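Example 3.2
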Amino acid sequence: MSDAAGRKKLLEVKNLKTYFDVEEQTAKAVDGVSFHIYANEVFGIVGESGSGKSVTSLSVMRLIPNPPGRIEDGEILFEGKDLLKLPYAEMRKIRGNEISMIFQEPMTALNPVFTIGFQLREAIRQHTPGMSKAQANVRAAEMLSLVGIPDAERRLKNYPHEFSGGMRQRAMIAMALALEPKLLIADEPTTALDVTIQAQILELMMSVREKTGDASILLITHDLAVVAETCERVAVMYGGKIQEIASVEDLFREPLHPYTQGLLLSLPRPDREKRRRLDTIPGIVPSILDMPSGCKFATRCPLEELQCEEKEPELREVLPGRFCRCHLVDGVARATVGSGAWGNGR
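Structure, written as tokens:
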């Protein structure tokens, strides 16, 4: 499907609800999430730990463990086909071949008892019927070279523990992009790496993507700097729901939702006074088992009104291409949280 501007939608997530049964209660980890990703687009989902962003990505791949988890409702349309209605065998063919994923911690994603080469070859051969072991080995070495691992043929014989953290993540990128998928899901791909390696990995991921077919990317992160550097559009999650969707340029220039404003105010900026303390959002994220009945951010928002406590706002298109879940945003004026409004900026 395409939008009014003629851009093809590769992935459409509609009203996705993924729940977990925990101690005779229901944890609504993802509660009515909707977004879409265009072909050849880099789309980011940003939010605090526990906001539901990783569960969203696992839901797209249908990797939610059942029990205790389940996809309760919604649609996940990939090129118009609902992934939630596919037989398991057909979904396995899509994983790796058309949709690939880079997991947050490569040491747990890679099997420690098999060599890097064996795991790369198996991933390639699984989705390429008729390919010989020798042909898969050549392709595996090509991909390791492409992600910047020297002496690739020799390194194929290494086990994951013989690679550094950065090299393991490079191997994961090689594995994910070896079959030139149409969509790459990257779940916190730089979290476990040294700061000096993070920029290299992001740049590598983007360059290899272009060389292997210009796939769309769903980038899951808590780091707004990563979003600013890599994404075209971004969704901000909190409490299992998307609170705002905008282009990266619009989001950083004029955030609409109070939560987004709080996140941006908490970033260090070179134009601020050196001794001025950073703003922080007070309080903590509510328990997933005890979310507010109204706006999920109401308990921490300095602009909270009675209607915020009583009624959950809908995610609405308040400006062209801009969506926001807030009673105080109407498309003309935005909810405004000035610096220091959180009560601790000095």
